[in-house]
What does this fold into?
Amino acid sequence: MTKNDSLYKKRFDGRAFNEVRPINAKVGVVPSADGSAMFETGGTRAIAVVRGPRILHPQHLQNPKEGILRVSYGMMPFSVWDRIRPGPSRRSEEISKVTEWALSAAVDLSQFPSSVVDVFIQIPQADAGTRVAGINAAAMALAAAGIPMKQMISAIAVGKADKTLLVDVDKDEEDFHDGEGATDIPIALTSRSKEIALLQLDGKISVDELKEAIEMAKKACDDVLAAQMKALKEVNEDKE
Ligand code: CDP
It folds into this structure.
């Protein structure tokens, strides 16, 4: 983790280097939806709403063999201090796509030919790690909607500030400029087989450090998964 000669020796918010920010997870936050959930770590909050499965139009987009998953990610205009312009951007298109790929590792839409399951992710407030928070919320919302899933998906952003490896990087850490600067590695893992459903890398890191960062992500994803499952269990108990 932290090396003696690293310029980042203590986290700005006082956390241990392998510590996730406080997690808050809730299912059923939008009662009119087929499934919905909220996932929060520290100052980053994601809300996911699921609609479907329903027959996909226009017809030429349909897959007659199985249903398709369609994800739309967006940040709300006042989610960050400098205001986000409403509407799609290159960044939101990219995050929508990678989220779709990550979630596709878990859902099984073989029972729903020619159909679509829509997932809408919104970020009302952001302090880094919004794509992983969005994936966590979306996985919960899909489960709450009763979409068949082979396993859950849990995600976390690990990274590096100068030579120090970190879990659940916040915005101040993402902006660390000294020494080797900051590296951001969003990772999503499947819950049982612990396969990597998403790994992106922005910055510089050695192969050995990356291996260590992935091990840290695996442990952190256990915390994320526990929070997801607790929230799903709570909502099922409420229904009984
Ligand atoms: O959110 P995530 O870490 O998945 O993606 P990013 O593109 O690396 O963005 C990192 C953080 O920068 C976001 O979580 C926001 O806190 C912030 N951000 C911003 O202030 N203004 C933007 N237009 C986009 C992101």
